[in-house]
Amino acid sequence: MQRQCAWCLRLMDNIGEPISPIPVPKIYKATHGMCKTCGNLWLEQAIQGTEPHAVARPLVLDAHISSQY
Ligand SMILES: [Zn+2]
Q: How remote is the CA of residue 34 from the centroid of ligand 1, in Å?
């Protein structure tokens, strides 16, 4: 089972470490979650008090909605 970060679209391993240097096209069969890189970015934004939702919007989930409906 492949895992793909829903935020940056990079493949990751089962502990959330990104394993592809660049984003890859969305893999429908993959499990989607947040990689460590995006998790850290999200945390930094939250700590700095900037708008976390700007970062936390998953690209893949948006694609899901627009392609299914
Ligand atoms: Zn990511």
A: 5
Would the pTM count as exceeding 0.70?
A: no
User: In total, how many domains does the chain have?
Assistant: 1
Residue span of the structural domain in which 11 resides? 3-68
With a CB cutoff of 8 Å and minimum separation 6, the contacts of 40 are: none
Q: Which residues surround ligand 1, an ion (CB under 5 A)?
A: 5, 7-8, 35, 38
- The mean pLDDT value of the chain amounts to 82
Q: Are 4 and 26 in contact (CB under 8 A)?
A: yes
67 CA to middle of ligand 1, Å?
A: 21
